[in-house]
Amino acid sequence: MFWDSLGIILLDIPPKGESVDADRYCEALDQLRHAVRRKRPGLLRSRVVLQHDNASPHTAKRTKEWLERYRWDIIPHPAHSPDLAPSDVPLFGPLRRHLGGKKCENEDELIGDFRD
User: Which Pfam family would be a valid example here (predicted)?
Assistant: First the structure.
């Protein structure tokens, strides 16, 4: 999930059982770039900054090359940190309001609810 102060920009959930490697992560970044162009057109003219941890898809050579190509910057978040990323905190209230009292029968129903 990618979001900014205005809300969710992209929800990219890999198929069940599929792991996220650098190729998959760069595909998600491509989707994010296109979603930003549609939903936040002025943002691409300014500096785009991502925050992610040191997971291997985030630090892979292919990912670093992608980020350099589009001049996106990274704010690091220490690996295995017990602290929340500062950007996570504003997401919890909207998630609670969106999911409050709902019961989903399975993962597909939950994902569908977010996409609607």
Answer: Transposase_1
Question: Hey, which bits of the chain come out as E strands?
Answer: 2-4, 7-10, 49-52, 73-76
Does residue 103 lie in a domain region?
Answer: no
Residue type, 36: V
CATH assignment of the domain containing 70: 3.30.420.10
Q: Does residue 14 contact residue 57 with C-beta atoms inside 8 Å?
A: no
CB 59: neighbour CB atoms within 10 A? 15
Where in the sequence is the domain holding 76, given as residue range(s)? 2-86
How many Cα atoms occupy the beta-carbon half-sphere of 14 within 13 Å?
11
Give the pLDDT of the chain (116 residues) as one tens digit per residue: 888 777 778 888 888 888 999 999 999 999 999 988 888 877 766 678 888 878 899 999 999 999 999 999 888 776 666 666 655 666 667 777 777 788 888 877 877 776 65
